[in-house]
Structure of Benzoate carboxyl methyltransferase:
Amino acid sequence: MNMESDFHMAKGEGETSYINNSRIQQKALLETEVVLEKAVREVRMDLHQPVMTAVDLGCSSGKNTLFFVSKVIKVLGHDSDEKSRCNPVELQFFLNGLPGNNFNHVFRSLERFKESITARHKENTPLPPFYIAGLPGSYYTRLFPRQSCHLFHSSFCLHWRSRVPAGLEEGGREYLNEGNIYIAKTTPAGVAELYQRQFQNDMLLFLKLRYEELVLGGQMVLTFLGRKYEDIYNNGYLNHPWGLLARSLQSLVEDGLVKKEKLDSFNLPIYTPSINEVKAVIGQSELFNVSHIKLFESNWDPHDDSQGDDAHNAIQSAINIAKSLRTVFGPLLASHFGESL
């Protein structure tokens, strides 16, 4: 599996596209809105130059793409004083994603976004000058010159690994995680440790790269899937959707539509750490201080903001979850099993 070429959200604007199935990601953005606002204000206070460079790492396309941009603009415009009105901070935004990202859709939406944010802005608070550029590439590589960025933001991305853990790749002598596609109840402890080690290595690399790119006093706001329990098997909770996906693939094997070897050789390049694991790897890096860390829970049904347990809601919820999973994992499955799946 080649992450740079194989991994991307479902493209287009149809019913199964990421653009129309990214409400879970939107919930995460809204949940962390206050933290982002605080980070922007702190960066502004420490800014000693006329340009602020802000980066959205792992952005995709759709309604959520420019949320980060609009929030930074709104905070700086709202907080502007007489001095800053005479010499407004100019904003340079970079939208980063893998080369397979639907950048064309992002670029097509920029003109409409500029018109919208200008119309919403109050007359007595001038709109800060801003410039937006796309930046293809993996955030597990260097993306910027040394000490050139003031703010990094990443939402719903850092649970993705740079690769499938070494030892689980297709073509090995044996399939260590037979019948599973992630960490499940029947996953051997050694395989779970491979996933854990891949997370540690990836996160240490990510922190090192961003430390080199951040200016002194720069900030990062990072939101990603984690698990509630220290137990790496997480009591089956967060791993449940991946388990359902694995069972669906197993049923295709039983029906003769997918070869068993194809399933056994497929593992998701993902890892959902606990809060203590995140703290430990940040401490190991000795590069950053954590000013705020929080675990928050969200319903797997992107359209369920309340609780409902009748049969109709249960069926509709299952459909909503399936659509959400398909828009994220569909391209990876197609790459490994073939488009006919």
